[in-house]
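Bumping with the actual sequence this time:
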Amino acid sequence: MLSLALEATQDTYQVGERSAREFATVPRFYSATGELESAGAENTVMLKPGSVRVTFHVKVESSSGDFARVVVTPETYQLVDGSPMPRPLAPDDPYLPPFVLGRADSLAMAIYERAKPYLAP
């Protein structure tokens, strides 16, 4: 299941850290409205107040029998004007931009679609 999740994730994101049952995507920066803030010269991203850094953690959890559950959790930090440190935003934080959970759901659905041919009837 982990290899299917990796394949589905690599269609859209670069994969960074890995372990036996989970992996994380390489952090990407987005504007407050969800546009990708790409790196420019010398691989530098110009951030603005409200920009967010998002990493998706994908974990394969075993359940009873031959079933597995895949959980996609965003790790998000937002740049705050006047603060030297970005603030962490939990998945249930009211200030979390809606696109973050939307992207997490899209990734979970892509993994499900990749695994669907292997589901037992």
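The tokens above came from a reply further down the thread. Residues 98-115 form the longest helix (18 residues).
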